[in-house]
């Protein structure tokens, strides 16, 4: 083929592309609720950074499937020593960063040393805590030495916090991130949209159909709904309003997917403060809560109730929702036993998330039936972080814990906002996090769930659902979210 | 006139200085730690301490204020904690949209209000008057965000004439203008309802005055008397209200930009406050204050242009 036929061919191709957009649809516009202020997942905890960039722009040594299984990513394979203290990763070769620089073991060492260092601002620095040293064996092999076995290490290394960055480009990570993923960062109009483009040099580029991904930031549910209905958005994987699902279900342009997330929604009680330091009071409150009514009222029925602190889709899940059946008389009895007089005033300080503010009103009424006078205070997120989370200045609050494997929260001692400190549970958690055998670990996790439920540490409400609205022609979106990220490499337009 | 300008400028600067002190104190009294907002609830205390050090949040309050104000005087608004880029750039990329929206909404407000106000005033206690009064009552009662949603449902979802929100950038002026139609209407209708009522009352006042009767008696047409004699004399209260409304429109963009997901200053200030991004909030509040004060200044100048009797006051 000479050059003029090549030009003619590509012109014809371009003509066909514009003439028949249905054949060649390779662009997608995805609605996002939350806009981050920076784009570096290794220095900012904002969930939408992971939602857009982790495993799309940035990659990590491992990845996680929709079912929560750990799979290879930048590490092709790995071996773990018998004592669980040495991990040897065999890295993909020929990988390049989007700026053309090459990836090798030195980048892994750089990324981890940066996350573990004294001046690290990594939002999940604790996941690196078991790592004693990172050694470059050769450009394609990296070795991690651990100070203690860590059952969650491979899973944790898949997260955005453990993204592999390069020393040459890490300075840009906040505003123009450079990774090794199937998409490269293209542009960001703050307040409006962020776009990614396919990275043709990626090792799996042949399987990636989307050429351009646009994330449009639309926080308001009514506006998001209008954008979907007027076809300016193709998908909204984390739709914020369960009450609007019905109209999309009735519309044959859309597929509505209701999946699960790692978010346990709890009505936390300040265990460090009277009367919540008395297990009878916590049990009374658990009896007073009616999860079905809360889920129907606050989530339009679209959520699974939980009886402890573990996601219902998890392998080790035990259904403990029957431990404290809704029983107002029993609640009153227990309160009287604990010496909490009828009409006792308590505050419920609620952060500005719809699941929380809506649940609060229903809970207020349910606790009133048990004789408690609950004052609901709606607070703003910055206020919540400072007053509730940092200063423990609260009686009760409602919050979703969206991190995976976060049962360890209950072993974080009195200074953590639960105010809960129980040596028995801390010892159990130490066992869980170091148990390498999956079956034994699951048995321990079941024990953990039962322990927390019997202690009634919090009011365990429901698992936060993932509400997805996507065009019917699209495939490849995750229905459930075992992690904060959503890989787009396999998303395709069909037909 | 020069003295007048000088006085106003000094007043403006004093206002801005006072505003900056108040915002600085309020943002610091307000519970909320920018470090926690950035690092989230799984972060370790040592990572929080490292970031606090990097952001310079350990310095005493007074020192931080002084170094900030010293920068501002030299035109440096500092670097945003949460965005990690210079505040001036953040604002510069968003200012044109918000200004365009506020000015177009004000213009539409004035056009609608004058037309309806004159119609109502000149048809006192007739169907035209009742119609305008009823409509304006409705307009005042409807919240702008709700009106926005109705407009979107009709013109974007049902008819597909206009986009439901978003902004394509200034590169394509026609698309940019289309994107601003619904937000402008949503912002303007409520304000126009108020202003139409003011225009009507003011018209009625002037219509009762002797010179109107004289003008009509000399045989001038009714239309000419209304537009050339009555309206100009009725404008002083109208202009006063427009000045106040401009401030409302500028702050109203905060809500409208969220409903129409427009990348303007309103959304930025919303995000900056949530993130406890002190420097960005400071700069934005100063900017909003400056816009409002400038609008009042323009109103003062307009008084003089409209009413020659006020010219002596400027001396």
TrEMBL record, chain A:
Oxidoreductase found in the keyword field: no
Instruction: Check the record and name the Gene3D superfamilies matching this protein.
Output: Dipeptide-binding Protein, Domain 1 (3.90.76.10), Dipeptide-binding Protein, Domain 3 (3.10.105.10), Periplasmic binding protein-like II (3.40.190.10)
What are the annotated GO cellular component locations?
Answer: ATP-binding cassette (ABC) transporter complex; outer membrane-bounded periplasmic space
Q: Where are the transmembrane segments?
A: none
**What compartments host this protein?**
Periplasm
Where is this protein chiefly located?
A: periplasm
Name a biological process GO annotation. Answer: peptide transport
Q: Name one GO molecular function term.
A: peptide transmembrane transporter activity
Question: Would I find Signal among this entry's keywords?
Answer: yes
Identify the residues that the record assigns to the Solute-binding protein family domain, covering every copy.
Answer: 69-403
Family membership noted in the UniProt record: Belongs to the bacterial solute-binding protein 5 family.
| Protein's name in the database | ABC transporter substrate-binding protein
Could you tell me which species this protein originates from? Aquibium carbonis
From TrEMBL, chain B:
Q: Which Pfam families match?
A: BPD_transp_1, BPD_transp_1_N
The transmembrane segments are 12-30, 99-120, 132-156, 176-198, 234-261, 281-306
Gene3D superfamilies according to UniProt: MetI-like
Subcellular localization is given as: Cell membrane
Please report the organism this UniProt entry assigns to the protein: Aquibium carbonis
A single GO molecular function term of this UniProt record: dipeptide transmembrane transporter activity
What InterPro entries does the entry give? BPD_transp_1_N, MetI-like, MetI-like_sf
| Topology versus the membrane | Multi-pass membrane protein
Q: Family per UniProt?
A: Belongs to the binding-protein-dependent transport system permease family.
Cell membrane in keyword set? yes
Q: Which domain of life is it from?
A: Bacteria
Sorted UniProt keywords: Cell membrane, Membrane, Transmembrane, Transmembrane helix, Transport
Could you identify this protein by its name?
ABC transporter permease
Q: Entry's CDD domains? A: TM_PBP2
Any one Gene Ontology cellular component term annotated for this protein: plasma membrane
**Signal peptide bounds:** none
Q: Does the keyword Zinc apply?
A: no
Which residues are in the ABC transmembrane type-1 domain?
Answer: 95-299
């Amino acid at each position: 083929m000479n050059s003029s036929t090549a030009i003619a061919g590509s012109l014809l191709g371009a003509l066909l592309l514009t003439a028949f957009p249905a054949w060649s649809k390779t662009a997608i516009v995805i609605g996002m609720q939350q806009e981050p202020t920076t784009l570096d997942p290794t220095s900012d905890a904002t969930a939408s950074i992971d939602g857009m960039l982790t495993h799309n722009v940035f990659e990590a040594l491992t990845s996680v499937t929709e079912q929560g299984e750990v799979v290879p990513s930048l590490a092709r394979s790995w071996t773990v020593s018998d004592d669980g203290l040495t991990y040897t990763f065999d890295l993909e070769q020929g990988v390049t960063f989007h700026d053309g620089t090459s990836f090798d073991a030195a980048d892994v060492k750089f990324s981890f040393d940066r996350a573990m260092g004294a001046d690290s601002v990594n939002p999940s620095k604790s996941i690196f805590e078991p790592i004693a040293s990172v050694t470059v064996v050769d450009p394609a092999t990296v070795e991690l030495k651990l100070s203690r076995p860590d059952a969650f290490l491979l899973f944790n290394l898949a997260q955005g916090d453990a993204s592999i960055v390069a020393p040459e480009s890490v300075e840009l990570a906040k505003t123009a991130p450079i990774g090794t993923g199937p998409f490269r960062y293209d542009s960001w109009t703050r307040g409006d949209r962020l776009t990614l483009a396919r990275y043709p040099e990626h090792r799996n580029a042949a399987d990636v159909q989307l050429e351009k991904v646009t994330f449009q930031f639309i926080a308001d549910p009514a506006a998001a709904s209008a954008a979907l209905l007027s076809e300016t958005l193709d998908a909204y994987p984390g739709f914020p309003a369960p009450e609007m699902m019905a109209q999309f279900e009735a519309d044959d342009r859309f597929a509505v997917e209701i999946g699960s997330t790692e978010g346990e929604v709890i009505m936390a009680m300040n265990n460090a403060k009277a009367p919540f330091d008395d297990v009878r009071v916590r049990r009374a409150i658990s009896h007073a809560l009616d999860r079905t009514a809360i889920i129907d009222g606050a989530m339009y029925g679209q959520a699974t109730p939980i009886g402890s602190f573990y996601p219902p889709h998890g392998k080790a899940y035990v259904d403990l929702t029957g431990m404290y059946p809704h029983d107002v008389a029993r609640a009153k009895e227990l309160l009287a036993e604990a010496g909490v007089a009828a009409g006792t005033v308590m505050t419920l300080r609620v952060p500005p998330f719809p699941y929380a503010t809506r649940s609060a009103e229903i809970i207020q009424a349910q606790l009133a039936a048990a004789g408690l006078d609950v004052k609901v205070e709606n607070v703003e997120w910055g206020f919540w972080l400072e007053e509730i989370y940092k200063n423990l200045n609260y009686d009760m609050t409602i919050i979703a814990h969206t991190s995976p494997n976060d049962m360890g929260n209950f072993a974080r001692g009195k200074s953590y906002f639960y105010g809960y400190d129980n040596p028995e549970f801390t010892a159990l958690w130490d066992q869980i996090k170091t148990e390498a055998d999956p079956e034994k670990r699951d048995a321990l996790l079941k024990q953990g769930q039962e322990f927390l439920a019997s202690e009634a540490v919090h009011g365990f409400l429901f698992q936060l659902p993932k509400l997805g609205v996507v065009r019917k022609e699209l495939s490849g979106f995750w229905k459930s979210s075992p992690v904060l990220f959503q890989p787009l490499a396999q998303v395709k337009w069909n037909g | 006139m020069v003295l007048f300008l000088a006085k106003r400028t000094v007043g403006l600067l004093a206002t801005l200085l006072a505003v900056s002190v108040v915002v600085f104190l309020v943002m610091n009294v307000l519970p909320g730690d920018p470090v926690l907002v950035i690092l989230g609830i799984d972060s370790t205390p040592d990572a929080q301490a490292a970031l606090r050090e990097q952001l310079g949040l350990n310095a005493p309050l007074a020192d931080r204020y002084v170094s900030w104000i010293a920068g501002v005087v030299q035109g440096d608004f500092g670097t945003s904690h949460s965005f990690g880029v210079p505040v001036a750039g953040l604002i510069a990329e968003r200012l044109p949209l918000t200004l365009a929206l506020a000015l177009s909404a004000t213009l539409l407000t004035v056009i609608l209000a004058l037309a309806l106000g004159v119609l109502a005033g000149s048809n006192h206690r007739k169907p035209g008057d009742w119609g305008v009064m009823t409509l304006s009552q409705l307009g005042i009662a409807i919240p702008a965000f709700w009106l926005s949603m109705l407009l979107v449902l009709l013109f974007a979802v049902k008819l597909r004439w206009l986009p439901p929100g978003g902004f394509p950038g200034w590169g394509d002026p026609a698309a940019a203008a289309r994107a601003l139609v619904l937000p402008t209407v949503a912002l303007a209708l409520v304000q126009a309802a108020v202003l139409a009522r003011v225009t009507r009352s003011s018209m009625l006042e002037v219509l009762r005055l002797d010179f109107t009767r004289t003008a009509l008696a000399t045989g001038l047409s009714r239309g000419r008397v209304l537009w050339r004699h009555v309206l100009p004399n009725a404008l002083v209260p109208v202009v006063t209200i427009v000045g106040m409304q401009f401030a409302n429109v500028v702050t109203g963009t905060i809500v409208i930009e969220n409903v129409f997901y427009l990348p303007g200053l309103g959304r930025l200030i919303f995000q900056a406050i949530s993130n406890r991004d002190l420097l960005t909030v400071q700069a934005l509040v100063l900017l909003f204050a400056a816009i409002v004060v400038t609008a009042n200044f323009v109103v003062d100048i307009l008084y003089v242009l409209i009413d020659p009797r006020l010219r002596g006051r400027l001396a």
